[in-house]
C-alpha cells in the first residue's frame, strides 16, 4: 500500500452509553475541561499522519453542536445507526463520498481517548503494509475460564495466542466498506470491524498496543481515564 494514501479517522459516536448509567451518552462526559469525544479528536487529529475525521453521531444528537469544536483539519459529520457496525458503515460511505476509494480508514471508538501517538504510528504503518489491514490488540494476561450452566468452571481455556481487540482498527477503505456491507446485508452481529474483514476471507494483522488505551464503559472508568491522561501528560512534560 503506497505511503501517500490519506488516512482518515472514522469515529463511531452514536452509542447511548447504557452501561455508564449517566444522563447523557458517555462520549459527552467530561474530564479536565473537555468531553471524552473532544479528547479523542484532539489525540487523533494532532497525529501528523491523520488527515481528518468523520464522526457518526445519533441523528437527534443535541450535544455536538454545543461543543463548537474547532480543528485545523476537516471534521465531517454523518448519522450513525442502530448498532456500531451501522455507524461505522455510515462513516465509511461519507468518507468515500468525500475522498473516493483511495483512502485508509482508521476506525476508533469515541470513548478511547488515551491512545498514544506511538501506537497510532505503528498500526497505521502495519495497515499500509497489509492488504487486509491491521488492528491494535493486547495479549490476554489472566487465566480464562469457561463456565458451565450452573456457574461452575467447565474448562480452562489456554490463553496462549489469545488477544483482546482494541481500536484503532485500520483498513484500506474499500476492504472494510465491502466487508461491512456483506455483514449488514446478512444481518450478522459482529463485535469489531476486523471480524467483518475476517468473514470476508482476509486476515488482518495484530499490532501489540498499550493497555492504557481502554474503552470507557462503566461509571468508575471516567476517573481512571483522567488519572491515566494526567500521567501521560506528566510523562510527556518530562521527556
Ligand atoms: N456506537 C455507535 N453506534 C451505535 C452503538 C455504539 O457509534 N449504535 C459507538 C459508541 O458511541 C462508542 C463505540 O461505538 O464510541 C463503542 O461502543 P460501546 O462502548 O458499546 O458504547 P455504547 O454502545 O454507547 O455503550 P453501551 O453498550 O454501554 O450502551
Ligand atoms: Mg454498545
Q: Mind explaining what this structure looks like?
A:
This protein has 239 residues and is α/β, with parallel strands linked by helices. The protein has one domain (7-135, 166-238): Spore Coat Polysaccharide Biosynthesis Protein SpsA, Chain A, CATH 3.90.550. Helix content is 34%, strand content 24%. The chain has a 7-stranded mixed sheet, sandwiched between helices. Helix 3 (84-99) crosses helix 5 and helix 5 packs across helix 6 (193-199). The protein starts with 6 loop residues before the first strand and ends with a helix. The structure holds cytidine-5'-triphosphate and magnesium ion. Cytidine-5'-triphosphate binds at residues 12-19, 25, 27, 56, 80-84, 87, 109-111, 215, 217.
Structural class of the helix and strand makeup? alpha/beta
Average pLDDT score: 97
Total E-strand runs: 11
H/E topology pattern: EEEHEHEHEHEEEEHHEH
Amino-to-carboxy terminus distance: 33 Å
Biggest sheet, spatial arrangement of strands: 5-4-1-6-10-7-11
What's the structural domain tally? 1
Please give the CATH architecture.
Alpha-Beta Complex
Approximate strand percentage: 15-25%
Poorly predicted ranges (pLDDT <50, ≥5 residues)? none
Inertia-based shape: globular
CATH evolutionary superfamily = Spore Coat Polysaccharide Biosynthesis Protein SpsA, Chain A
Helix content: 25-40%
The CATH topology assignment is: Spore Coat Polysaccharide Biosynthesis Protein SpsA, Chain A
Count of runs of 4 or more consecutive helical residues: 7
Bound molecules: cytidine-5'-triphosphate, magnesium ion
Largest sheet report: 7 strands, mixed
Amino acid at each position: 500500500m503506497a505511503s501517500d494514501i490519506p488516512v482518515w479517522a472514522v469515529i463511531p459516536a452514536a452509542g447511548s452509553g447504557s452501561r455508564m448509567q449517566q444522563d447523557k451518552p458517555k462520549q459527552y462526559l467530561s474530564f479536565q475541561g473537555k468531553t471524552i469525544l473532544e479528547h479523542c479528536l484532539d489525540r487523533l487529529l494532532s497525529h501528523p499522519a491523520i488527515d481528518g475525521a468523520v464522526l457518526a453521531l445519533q441523528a437527534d444528537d443535541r450535544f455536538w453542536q454545543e461543543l463548537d469544536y474547532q480543528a485545523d483539519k476537516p471534521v465531517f459529520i454523518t448519522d450513525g445507526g442502530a448498532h456500531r457496525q451501522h455507524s461505522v458503515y455510515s462513516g465509511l460511505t461519507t468518507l468515500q463520498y468525500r475522498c473516493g476509494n483511495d483512502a485508509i480508514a482508521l476506525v476508533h471508538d469515541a470513548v478511547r481517548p488515551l491512545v498514544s501517538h506511538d501506537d497510532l504510528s505503528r498500526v497505521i504503518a502495519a495497515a499500509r503494509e497489509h492488504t487486509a489491514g491491521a488492528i491494535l490488540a493486547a495479549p490476554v494476561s489472566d487465566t480464562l475460564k469457561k463456565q458451565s450452566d450452573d456457574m461452575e468452571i467447565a474448562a480452562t481455556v489456554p490463553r496462549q495466542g489469545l488477544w483482546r481487540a482494541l481500536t484503532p482498527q485500520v483498513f484500506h477503505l474499500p476492504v472494510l466498506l465491502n466487508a461491512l456491507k456483506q455483514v449488514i446485508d446478512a444481518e450478522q452481529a459482529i463485535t469489531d470491524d476486523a471480524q467483518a474483514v475476517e468473514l470476508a476471507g482476509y486476515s488482518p494483522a495484530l499490532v501489540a498496543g498499550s493497555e492504557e488505551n481502554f474503552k470507557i464503559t462503566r461509571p468508575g472508568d471516567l476517573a481512571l481515564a483522567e488519572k491515566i491522561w494526567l500521567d501521560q501528560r506528566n510523562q510527556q512534560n518530562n521527556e
